[in-house]
């Protein structure tokens, strides 16, 4: 735990062609950089006016002190991995469970970090009662009550709320690319209702639409980006409040011929389009899936770090990006070991710190990208 010594750092970089190529003076500059949060925020001369953070599970914060110390050392914004989602926080129609969410937001506030809210509406993580209890007759009341209760409890303490998560799935074949989600089936105008309610309940939170598979150059991502821009334009025409787009950034190392693992001009253009609509941007759930790299650990770590570098240079170049959050800080707890895991059974190495909480080349790639981002 803690910052690497010079020797640890050099042994890390030896495995990484791109970092090993840096001159010695650059190496010592990197080593003298303190933490991700110092590089990102207004805590040092080198800071860029950015927020940097990760998702955290309440259980690890409570039971793993070394993990909690690392999060505290590196991050200045947090998001709950699952604890603010509908099912965990609203386990019965008239019962809410706030203990785990409170653990996370209290930890954030005690350590001078901001907190994101994730999320009010998603097609997953719904409680078992949703399917039998919610009908077209009561759906609006259920949704509004949920947002009033959860959003009201944390009012004034949330930097940005993912009001709606992953509402577009073009391949479902519905008009406007809408996903055929449980909410869509009972309440077709749920997006407008959710955003209007969120604004009324917590007027200072940035209201965010968050989605995935919108980063790459392939045709499916192109269609999804277009649907999101249309969604935002429609909301604006109807006077529905929305402040930001969350680009989840679950990206993949290892090339694919269809462009689905290539990140560049299309994403840059999408970010400009979002900016022209007057919205801010956040990278909300970044990790680099290495399942398509059948190779040894140094090679995998180098490929993951290279993608952290190139992706963050592309995205952080846009000054409207307010925050960068990774979906975890250590490979010890990455969700990718449970979803989308490697076929060879090896654990994923998708995050800046390894399972022993040691910084990997991806950490230095992230740190350098933060340090060289244009000032906000
Ligand atoms: C994931 C969590 O990391 C897992 O623990 C859980 O089992 C499923 O959800 N997009 C999102 C996140 O918006 O909420 C998801 O989190 C990952 C994909």
Characterization of the model:
With 376 residues, this protein is α/β, with parallel strands linked by helices. It is 42% helix and 14% strand. The chain has 16 helices and 9 strands. It has an 8-stranded parallel barrel, surrounded by 5 helices. β8, α15 and β9 form a beta-alpha-beta unit. α10 packs parallel to α12 (190-201), α13 (219-237) runs parallel beside α14 (265-276) and α15 runs parallel beside α16 (361-372). Residues 1-32 have low confidence and may be disordered. (3S,4R)-3-hydroxy-2-oxopiperidin-4-yl beta-D-xylopyranoside (XIL) binds at residues 81-82, 165, 212, 248, 285, 335.
* Number of helical segments with 4 or more residues: 16
Please tell me the overall pLDDT.
92
The largest β sheet comes out as:
8 strands, parallel, barrel
Identify every distinct bound molecule in the structure, by name, code or SMILES: (3S,4R)-3-hydroxy-2-oxopiperidin-4-yl beta-D-xylopyranoside
Radius of gyration: 20 Å
**Topology as a string of helices (H) and strands (E):** HHHHEHHEHHEHHEHHEHEEHEHEH
**Strand neighbour order, sheet with most strands:** 1-2-3-4-5-6-8-9
The residue fraction in helices comes out at 40-55%
**How many angstroms does the end-to-end distance come to?**
30 Å
Note the beta-strand portion: 5-15%
Unreliably modeled segments: 1-32
Topology summary:
Layout: H1 6-14, H2 17-20, H3 24-32, H4 36-40, E1 51-56, H5 58-63, H6 65-74, E2 77-80, H7 86-89, H8 99-110, E3 114-121, H9 129-133, H10 139-153, E4 160-165, H11 182-186, H12 190-201, E5 206-211, H13 219-237, E6 244-247, E7 250-252, H14 265-276, E8 280-289, H15 297-316, E9 321-326, H16 361-372
Parallel strand pairs: 1-2, 1-9, 2-3, 3-4, 4-5, 5-6, 6-8, 7-8, 8-9
The structure holds (3S,4R)-3-hydroxy-2-oxopiperidin-4-yl beta-D-xylopyranoside.
């Amino acid at each position: 735990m803690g910052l690497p010594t010079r020797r640890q750092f050099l042994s890390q970089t030896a495995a990484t062609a791109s970092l090993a190529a840096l001159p010695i003076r650059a190496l010592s500059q990197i080593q003298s950089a303190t933490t991700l949060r110092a590089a990102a925020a207004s805590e040092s001369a080198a800071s860029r006016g950015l927020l940097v953070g990760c998702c955290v599970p309440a259980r690890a914060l409570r039971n793993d002190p070394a993990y909690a110390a690392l999060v505290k050392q590196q991050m200045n914004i947090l998001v709950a991995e699952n604890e603010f989602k509908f099912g965990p926080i609203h386990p019965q129609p008239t019962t809410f469970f706030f203990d785990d969410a409170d653990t996370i937001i209290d930890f954030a506030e005690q350590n001078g970090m901001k907190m994101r809210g994730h999320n009010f509406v998603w097609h997953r993580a719904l409680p078992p009662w949703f399917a039998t209890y919610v009908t077209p007759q009561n759906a609006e009341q259920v949704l509004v009550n949920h947002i009033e209760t959860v959003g009201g409890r944390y009012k004034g303490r949330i930097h940005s709320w993912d009001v709606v998560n992953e509402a577009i799935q073009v391949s479902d074949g519905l008009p406007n690319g809408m996903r055929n989600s449980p909410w869509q089936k009972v309440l077709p105008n749920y997006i407008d209702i959710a955003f209007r309610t969120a604004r009324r309940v917590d007027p200072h939170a940035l209201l965010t639409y968050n989605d995935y598979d919108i980063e790459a150059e392939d045709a499916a991502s192109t269609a999804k980006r277009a649907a999101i821009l249309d969604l935002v334009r429609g909301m604006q025409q109807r006077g529905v409040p929305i402040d930001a787009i969350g680009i989840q950034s679950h990206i993949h190392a290892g090339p694919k011929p269809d462009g689905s693992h290539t990140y560049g001009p299309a994403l840059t253009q999408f970010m400009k389009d979002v900016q022209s609509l007057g919205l801010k941007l956040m990278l909300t759930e970044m990790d680099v899936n290495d399942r398509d790299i059948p190779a040894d650990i140094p090679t995998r770590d180098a490929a993951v770090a290279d993608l952290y570098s190139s992706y963050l240079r592309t995205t952080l170049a846009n000054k409207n990006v307010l925050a960068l959050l990774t979906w975890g800080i250590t490979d010890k707890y990455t969700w990718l070991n449970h979803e989308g895991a490697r076929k060879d059974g090896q654990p994923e190495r998708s995050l800046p710190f390894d399972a022993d909480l040691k910084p990997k080349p991806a950490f230095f790639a992230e740190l350098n990208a933060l340090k060289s981002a244009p000032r906000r």
